[in-house]
Structures are given as structure tokens and as C-alpha cells.
Amino acid sequence: MIEIHNIHKSFGGKKVLDGISGVFETGKINLLLGASGTGKSVLLKCIVGLIKPDLGSVTFDGTYFTNNKLDIRQEIRRKIGMLFQGSALFDSMTVEENVDFPLKMLTNMSRKERIERVNFCLKRVGLEGANRKMPSELSGGMKKRVGIARAIAPNCTYLFCDEPNSGLDPQTALKIDELIKEITEEYNITTIIVTHDMNSVIEIGDKIMFLFEGKKLWEGTKDEIMDTDIKELNDFIFANRLMRDAKRIEEEDREEEQEREAEEHARLEKNKPAG
Ligand SMILES: Nc1ncnc2c1ncn2[C@@H]1O[C@H](COP(=O)(O)OP(=O)(O)OP(=O)(O)O)[C@@H](O)[C@H]1O
């Protein structure tokens, strides 16, 4: 579990994060949702320690991270896997070398053990045998898979993904979402995904935190998100026509159900034996 408390961050007098607190649960997909420029990526970077918050703290499974001693921060960092926007593979390295990279940097594994681990991770993301390929030979979806294999290679406890779907067609995006969800549940990882994709919310969002202009305006589950009365959140969700249609259909179904129940009730009342 990751806990953040009262995170503030400004750049040159411009407030980007304004006192954000919350909990990200283990074995769950935790989404940071919000429009462009609302501070999602900055919050993610504050959590992993790439940006130092001006105020506030982050705790990983009870261990204080922000401003803690370097060796403790490094120990936590070793447990973090990152999937960057655009995959960020090393173009001059093969797939195998890309996935092996964090193992070389972060573990004392022998070469044989590392290659076994690389092969295991490639198989897990559906890329068995792609070891010798170069990133330039891969599709966008395959690159994301290599990025996921690289992120989980050192047995990460925490997984951070910055818009893992960007640039993918809807079908491939769904497959990548499902893969991240499966891996999260299988290895009991605390996963945080930055997104503005409502499809991801509906498909895999166990817990959602909605940011607006640097503030947390709402948090809840995907089943609750369609029924809030927060204007900014509704404007965000229903800017998407498919979401408006989904909401309309849900409301029509609910009305039909209520009518059916009322008719059934009236029928039972009518047929009640007198006295
Ligand atoms: N290093 C930085 N220096 C100055 N300003 C920054 C820096 N990083 C981010 N910002 C500003 O902080 C604000 C929030 O940026 P952030 O990247 O977190 O938005 P976002 O919600 O992730 O948007 P998107 O969905 O477009 O990626 C933006 O106005 C951005 O210009």
C-alpha cells in the first residue's frame, strides 16, 4: 500500500499540486485520472522520488520515503517498476538487453539467472522468443509489452505507468490494460496508472483518484464514477460521446426496471385475497 499525505508542488510560483492525500491499494489498479496539465505526471514523479514535493510525504508499506535516508530510499526504489510514456526503450539495445538492463543495474544475479528471468518475463507478456529483435522492428503494442517486461523483471512490488495506452489503437490498448491488470493481481503489486482514458477506467480501474487543477476532487470505484454530482468530474467523463450514451442507456434500463417493479407490485396488490 502506498500512502501520500498533503503533497504540494509549485514550479516558479505556479502551484501544480495543492495538498493531495490518499491511499493506493495493494493488488489493485489505482488510476490517477484527470485532464491534460492537471498535475497527474508531477504527482507520479513526486511519489517515485523523481521530483521532490515542496511539502508532504509518501509512505511505501509503512516505510517513510520522502526525505528519508538515502539507503532506505534506494531500497524502496529497487522495488519500483516504471512503464514510461512511449515505452522509452533503449533503441540501440535488443529486446533482451532492454529487459536485462534493470537486472544488471539492480540485482546481483548471474548472467544465467538474468537470462532465465528475461525469458520468463518475455513469455509472461506474450513475447517469447523476441530476444534478438531491435525496438525499431516492433509495433507500438509490442514495445509496451517489452516496457512491461522490463518494469516487472526485478520482481517489482510497486508498478507505475504513465499513460500506458497512448498511441495505441483501442483493441491493443485494451490488451495492454488487461495485461497490466493480470500482472498486478498475479504478483500482488501496488499499481498506479496515470491516464485520461475513460476506457481504462471502465475496464480495469479498481480505484480512481480524480485530479482537477492540482487538487483531488473525487475518489472512488469505477462503479461509483458515473453517479457523482461533481460537475468537473461529470464534464470530464461525459465529454466522451460513448460515455454519454452509456449513461443514457443505464438510466433508461433503470427506469424500465422501476416500471416493471411498479407493475408487478400493482398486480400483486390487485390479486391479494380480500380481508
Ligand atoms: N519540471 C517542470 N517545470 C515547470 N513546470 C512543470 C514541470 N513539470 C510539469 N510542469 C507543469 O505542471 C503542470 C502539470 O503537468 P503534468 O505533466 O503533471 O500534467 P498531466 O496532468 O500529467 O498532463 P498530461 O495528461 O497532458 O500528461 C503543467 O502546467 C506543466 O507545464
TrEMBL record:
<dbReference type="InterPro" id="IPR027417">
    <property type="entry name" value="P-loop_NTPase"/>
</dbReference>
<keyword id="KW-0813">Transport</keyword>
<dbReference type="InterPro" id="IPR003439">
    <property type="entry name" value="ABC_transporter-like_ATP-bd"/>
</dbReference>
<dbReference type="InterPro" id="IPR017871">
    <property type="entry name" value="ABC_transporter-like_CS"/>
</dbReference>
<dbReference type="GO" id="GO:0005524">
    <property type="term" value="F:ATP binding"/>
</dbReference>
<keyword id="KW-0547">Nucleotide-binding</keyword>
<feature type="region of interest" description="Disordered">
    <location>
        <begin position="249"/>
        <end position="275"/>
    </location>
</feature>
<dbReference type="InterPro" id="IPR003593">
    <property type="entry name" value="AAA+_ATPase"/>
</dbReference>
<keyword id="KW-0067">ATP-binding</keyword>
<dbReference type="Pfam" id="PF00005">
    <property type="entry name" value="ABC_tran"/>
</dbReference>
<feature type="compositionally biased region" description="Acidic residues">
    <location>
        <begin position="252"/>
        <end position="261"/>
    </location>
</feature>
<protein>
    <submittedName>
        <fullName>ABC transporter ATP-binding protein</fullName>
    </submittedName>
</protein>
<feature type="domain" description="ABC transporter">
    <location>
        <begin position="2"/>
        <end position="238"/>
    </location>
</feature>
<feature type="compositionally biased region" description="Basic and acidic residues">
    <location>
        <begin position="262"/>
        <end position="275"/>
    </location>
</feature>
